[in-house]
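Researcher: Can you fold this with iron/sulfur cluster in place?
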Amino acid sequence: MAASLIYDSRLSELTTLLALWDEPGYRATQVWQGLYQHFWDSPEQFTNLPVHLRQKLAGEFCFAPLHPVTILTSSDHQTVKTLFNLMDGQAIETVLMHYKERRTICISTQVGCAMGCVFCATGQMGFKRNLSSGEIVAQVLYYARLFREEGAGITNVVVMGMGEPFHNYENTMEAVDRLNDTDGFSLGARRFTVSTVGLIPAILRFTREKRQINLAISLHAADDTLRASMLPINNAYPIDDLLAACHDYVRTTRRRITFEWALVNGINDTPEQAHLLAGKLKGLLCHVNAIPLNPTKGYSGEATTKSHANAFKQILNGYHIPCTIRLRRGIDIQAGCGQLASNEINK
Ligand code: SF4
């Protein structure tokens, strides 16, 4: 039988297991701190544990589920993308972005994605499987390990890589909780941003749970016809219903919501779309993150122009809606979600 992944275990589960092995109560905490504070990824590194326990852990668990197969660094050295093979041979991507003092990791929650957004390389790949909570956690620990060698740490985690996080809600939130645990990795909840294409039932659940994690919605279009042509999920959850859920979120949590908008030349970067969007977002505590499209092989749309992007922003600002035009990061290393993995699969 294949060993289970140690990062899939909660501290309470490790405590129960080690008690069954007749180990003293403090051993589980030692294991937990080894994993989440020292970032050890091999039983031999746990030199504070007796040899027999290290051997038992090695027999029971896998400590290194991610095997980096391709690492690409952008020409400005600010973005690093890693393609990992998982234990079953599937591939996922994780992206590191340096921005001023920030070191942000963009992590994946699924292999492939079922949402089928037309401009997205992961969507073009189709859905393979959910990642376990441990596979999600391990992506962050991988980079934490690298940074520790430089005496630095991860400042932010964005759950915007391959997959729809709310389509794998339990494992995603379990992973965030584990990374948030003050006895372990201890990254504050507000350092996390989870992005969804708009699965309304999950948004309502997220709202009820009153998590302190930031919420981003991939909107990309301001009318149902255009949005459904870009994001098929809009057929199930139309814009007005989605925005009603967003209003509920902001009212309940008093937190600002972010809308993501991939600017496609001549499609959704037009003054008409900007005015329509402004009308839809009226009265909502929000911010619009617009970013020129990262082109993919399976979609003919092109990135917006600088003048279209600026005009889009000016229109929103005219309605007092904050809008930032983000720089495309890592375009030379195919840093858009799923691009590297889809190349690997399509080789
Ligand atoms: S954009 Fe996100 S939700 Fe849409 S297909 Fe890509 S990974 Fe899935």
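Model: Folded with iron/sulfur cluster in place. The mean pLDDT is 93.
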